């Protein structure tokens, strides 16, 4: 029988900061669950589509309807990454260790996780509110444009 390979403890502060800095690409999930995590890989195409919407809007202007659909995807990916950082950072150490370090306890996260949560809250709230405002504005502009087109 072979022993399980030695795995370094998964630290809460590292997972929190990975979610803040590169969570839109699933870095926190790769850290916690490994390279075979399907949800981690799902972050990449969604974020790239959102970035394509940003590039289209910068290149073609605000009248490009495809960018209206793609750009909010980027905002939602940023918001979900920040929410994940908040959840990771605020998870109790005992629960964190039971879930991610069942064989041995990891050192307490300390203030690094708390600082990550604070930054994630600021960035996530900004991204979510901006996405809602942008999507709402574009939707109502589209409705007005359609009403004008029909009335002519």
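^ Assign residues to that structure.
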């Amino acid at each position: 029988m072979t022993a399980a390979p030695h795995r370094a403890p998964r630290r809460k502060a590292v997972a929190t900061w990975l979610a803040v800095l590169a969570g839109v690409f699933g870095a926190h999930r790769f850290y916690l669950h490994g390279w075979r995590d399907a949800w981690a890989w799902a972050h990449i195409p969604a974020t790239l589509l959102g970035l394509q919407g940003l590039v289209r809007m910068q290149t073609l202007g605000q009248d490009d309807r495809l960018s209206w659909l793609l750009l909010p995807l980027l905002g939602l990916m940023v918001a979900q990454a920040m929410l994940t950082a908040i959840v990771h950072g605020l998870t109790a150490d005992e629960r964190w260790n039971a879930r991610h370090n069942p064989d041995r306890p990891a050192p307490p996260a300390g203030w690094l996780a708390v600082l990550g949560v604070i930054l994630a809250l600021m960035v996530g709230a900004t991204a979510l509110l901006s996405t809602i405002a942008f999507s709402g504005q574009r939707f109502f502009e589209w409705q007005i444009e359609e009403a004008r087109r029909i009335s002519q």
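Helices lie at 12-22, 27-33, 38-60, 65-90, 93-100, 111-151.
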